[in-house]
Amino acid sequence: MSMFKVRSLGVSYGGVHALSDVTLDVAEGQLVGLIGPNGAGKTTFVDAVSGLVGARGRVELDGEDLTGMPPHARARRGLARTFQSSELFEDLTVTENLRVTAEHPSWVRVFGETFGRRTPPPSAVADALTTLGLQDFADASPGELSQGQRKLVGVARALAARPRIICLDEPAAGLDTAESAELGRRLRAVADAGTALLLIDHDMGLVMGICDQLVVLEFGKVIAAGPPSQVRDDPAVITAYLGASAVQPADAPVHDGGTPSSLTTGRPGVPSSAPETS
Amino acid sequence: MSLGWYRSFLPVAQAYSGPASPYWASKAFLGLLLPADHAVWTAPEEPGPVETADRCLALPAPGWLLHSTAADGIVRLVNHGSGRLPPPPTPPQDSPHYTRFAYSTAAAPETPPDDESPGPDNHIALLGSSGPSRRGRIHPLYVHGRQAASWHTPLAGLVIAVALALGALYRWTRFGLATRAASENEQAALLAGLSPNSVSLANTLLSALIAGLLGVLAAPIVQVDSVTLPLQVVPALAAALFAGFTSLWIACSAGILIGVMQSVVYYLSTQSWFPTDNGNAMPGLQQLLIFILMIIALYVKGAGLPRRGELVEQRLPAVPLPDRLLRPAVLATAAAALALIVLPFDFRQALTNSLIGAIIVLSYVVITGYVGQISVMQLALSGTAGFVLSHLATGLHIPFPFNALGATLLATLLGVAAGISALRVRGVSLAVVTLAAALAMEQALFTNTSFGGTAGVTVLPPRLFGVDLGPGAAFRGLDGNEPSPLFGFLVLSVAVALGLYVANLRRTGLGRRMLAVRSNERAAAAAGVNVRGVKIAAFAVSSFIASAAGTLYGYNFGSVSAVRFTALAALGLIGFAYIGGITMVSGAVIAGLMSTEALIPHALDKWFGIKGSWALLFGGISLIVTLIANPDGIAGANHRRKKAKTAARAAKTAQALAENATSDTAGAETAPAPEEVAR
Q1: Residue-level pLDDT at B126
Q2: Which among A162, A197, A222 is the end of a domain?
Q3: Which of A132, A229, B293, B363 is buried most deeply by CB count within 10 Å?
Q4: Is the CB of B319 less than 8 angstroms away from the CB of A91?
Q5: 3-class SS at B248?
Q6: Closest in B321, B512, B522 to A100, CB measured
Q7: Residues 6+ apart with CB under 8 A from B314
Q8: Buried b or exposed e, range B279-295, using 16+ CB within 10 angstroms
Q9: Locate the ABC transporter domain: which residues (chain A) (predicted)?
Q10: ipTM greater than 0.90, yes or no?
Q11: CATH of the domain at A219
């Protein structure tokens, strides 16, 4: 029984269909990868489910219909997300960043707080920092962190809300291979602890290695879905990544890691100069 | 010949002169050359065409329709062709004598009093509060039978020409391309070999040139004083908002339409049914109209959250977490309390003014410093609270402190309402909207004699259990003069309470959410922060603080008057807030000390004879210096220096420790590097 359901999601900018009829399910504790070439609509998908972009279709979490709710209401019901460029709160320390997502006090408590009542950070903050290995940076300001650390803080911030599902928008971009692998282990642990994850990334090693399911988007449409082993042999996927001429039936060389060489190097065949804006 | 008809009368004179004029005039005497038996002198007089029948003569060449009526003998000329202008491409010039729609033998041209240039007359004009627009070049269409037609553009036509020229410049020239590139992405432009700084400088110069040109052109038709022309920026900004600050075409059309609507409101206000205030038309409706237009524009164009990739300009100083609150608060309070007793009366007054100014700036710390929303209406809210206080205390006899509290709450409601209407706006646009709101309040509320009035309304001194707490209280300080230190204490206690509240706010969850909204509204919403709720809370808190200051203003001077709460004064105060440090309570205190009639200007005046307007100039210059050299403001710079000093001290201690350790263990590797300890 899937906990997070997206049905026929569609987003149009003027006459351009950025997303059309995308349907996707994530079960509790599942790690689902969402991949596709640049401009396929992956970030738009996350923007749409998190409510930052108006969309057609239906988004459901734990049986509750989130369609039409503002972003903060979706977040409080357990739908967290990270951003491609971290988008940390630059004026707050790392702990404070996490506290913003972890605390949603009643107005009465807010009133009490402003008159001097001090509250300790909720335990979710420390837990999230530990999970991502960020204990040493608790009091740092985001400006002092490296790009990779900022990404991790972004994930920790989403995790601090103790969400049901986190949509991760390219958490490994800017991380080196070792860091990426480390992130993969930590994400797998998060998923195994019960939080569902929807992972968008171009690092095929990471995606293929840790995901239970993959969904492939191209030009705003789902072109393939299924377990990684099945998706990586899908001719439509290889066409999307490498172009039609690259499809040579059934002879994609397979490495020990279980990924076809054509998909291990990130984004072959796609001009890498223009990262998607966020 | 004199310059006039019967006598010298300059208003009918034309601004040209030529040596041929006397010869031209002497043509009148040519008839004397005819011999005495010429028909001119001998033929019997016949009735003129005017006396026998009604006539109508079409003169297509000059674009005239000439007609006369026999009954009254009057000849009329309808002008649809002739001005005094040479044909295009000569730029249109104003020439009211020659561009009238109609002339007649029975009507003299309307002329202004001596020594003034002739005013516009007899054409269709846009009426502004300060006079009609001029008629531009006449373009004849046709003259036929009993009909004549022409078209013209009022002086606004020039605006369209400027807009077209600018549009062409930015669209088709290399300079335009460079500008668009630099405004989209400075770094990329830099890499492409453009210099964003010189591009920006050139654009700044161009905009200054255009603004100056319009000033020159507008000067004859609007009042030229220190307020009217600068405040024309508000309707202009409204047009720019419609255009999203990017489309010349929309800006130009919206500007003209707003001008037309203002003219219509002005015309309606001359009608007998129009609501009046003390015999005059109800004030402030034009400003209210502009505010409403802005709200509509922004509601349509704005979004609850910034869109993905949308540029949100954000250059606000950091908001340090206050380490200690109580000690600095107690020290400052003690110093101020002592000063309120021992200082001479004029300095006591200046200190009280400083404290009230600091309270208003505290409201900026919340709304601008913490939430990043620039609101110009805070001072107008203070004024509203002051006027309401006068009504509650004098009119309804509500006792202190309930009257002050009631006035504060009512003005807060107004602030929250204005804030809610601007929730979809941020950054510069919000500054513009709140400026329009401030102007609307100033004109519609403060100058309305039934609510406020420039003459001022009285505010009774605060009295608690029969004890006067106002500036005229019995306890008079060391020199025995007014204002009473008691009132100073009242102001001080309010200032300290609100200052502590604002400083503490930074430590609370609400404060963190405010800063989250300031950093990144989209990320904040995705993190579960109710962005609208946080903004409303911020508007409420800052409006409350500003309104509380307004009631203190009222008590301070015993009266409230519109002149103290103008939009221009508000802009000055924001400037001081930036200089002081808009994100910190200590910055608010510094800004308060610099504000109008506060300690620093008073001291400058008293000791060095530097008057208030010079102080304002000084403030303006130091604002520019601050923004360039020290964007965190004075308080922010202090904080950073202190932090650096603490870090340096820690490093020194660590080094000393390390040295000790090294000498103790004689070169053992256990001593941590000093830098490591300093961290």
Answers
A1: 63
A2: A162
A3: B363
A4: yes
A5: helix
A6: B512
A7: B372, B427, B518, B519
A8: eeebbbbbbbbbbebbb
A9: 4-244
A10: no
A11: 3.40.50.300
